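Structure tokens please, single chain.
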Amino acid sequence: MKISMRISLVFLALSLSISAARGQSGPTIQLTSGIRPKSVHLGENVSFTVSAAGVEPLSFQWRLDGKDLAGETNSTLTITGAERDDEGDYTVEVRNPEGRTISPPSRLWIVPPSSDIRQSDFVNSTGVRMPYFYHLPERYDPGRRYPLVLHLHHAGLYEAAVLDWFGNKPGIIRYISYRQQKTDPAILVLPTHEQNVGWTDADVSALSELLDRLLSEFRIDPDRIYLSATSIGGGPLMQLLAKRPNLFAGAAIRSAVANIPKAEVPLMKHVPVWGFESATEGSYTRTFIADLRAAGGRALLTVYNSGTHSEAVTAANSAPHIDWLFSQRRGQVTLPSLAITGRTLETTYRTGADFLDLRGSAQGFAYPVSKVSWLNLALNRRGDAIGTEAWSAPGIPLAANRTNAIVVTATLNLTWVPVEGTTTFNDTVSVFSSPLQATLALQGNQLILNWTGGVPPFRLQRSSDLGVPAWTEMGNDLTPPLTLPKPAGIEFFRVVGQ
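Here you go.
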């Protein structure tokens, strides 16, 4: 049996391409921090700087959303007193006598001042007080439903410190940037603690009840409730996903430092998650994503080859996970998607074969897929597929009489920051291998043919010569046992299933 698989991933934001224009060998652009996406409050100053190399002279032209910015022809672009209309995707075209190169888009988010963030208070049914901060769209309309983002912060923050944090770290409120509020306004809620303590199990219960209060108080789109977390906030995020898996449309986790029992992960397998982590820090996020994939979930994972915990958190802000998160809808995994031809109504495919052939295609961010690989968790066997955008994986071994969870993963050499690493995306197919086993017994002048395993419909074939077999069909859609007349000479029989 062949199962044809197709992985497709089309993102809404950045396309990381810094090669010269087709047919030319122009200057090169180094992806330094100077060209990294940035977030600033309204009225603040900000600059982008491009580092380029190549045959002199080099000339520069900065653009906002693809349109030339008049007079901005230096290697550094400075914006003084950022205004709402300054928000968007910035690129720079670098030219020299040999050609031209355009940088990847660098998003600039312009966010409201911290004074626009409102504070409220919540006490749950057991008396746990949970202060929280929130922001409503500027033109909040009670007749319209809005997406909700619930962000769980890292360690060291509590009620008295959060507003200062908003002022110093504008990146966390990019969910309510002015362009976001104009095109797809959302409600942002940031729960916290009375004191400088970590998240507890009692907090998770309070968070769940707080969500119910928000759903009753504001006009929230029930199909667009999102979770976001950083560091120690990753633990309660996972617990909320397990506690109320049918509530959320998607989640983003930056360098979690907590995890949940593996047995709880299948509860949330239908919720798409994007995780970020450095290879040099704890593997909580990587473990969670691996467990999620093994359970049949679809997840993205960006791993940086180097960097500290805090550096990984900062690096994650450069990835287009906000656009990705807002593109998700509850019960509909928008990105990535995978279609299986054949028995699409079954959650687990059944086969009588000992091996499986998979094939499909993979795309992500309009950037080359470096490899596609597979892992059969039942056997702990893995291998690389043949090809990338169009790939095939023939002869994947199956464990007999077991459900084989086969995780297919596409890899991009892409992190959106000047740190090497990868971003992977996946889907998982479950295959139950049930090899067909037949027995043949003589009872008087009759043969009793019986079999177990395999996948119907079953066909019976016979041949009188195995040296050069010519199999003759004896029946279709058969069920065991079969009674056959005793042959006059030597006969061979075989049962053929799916």
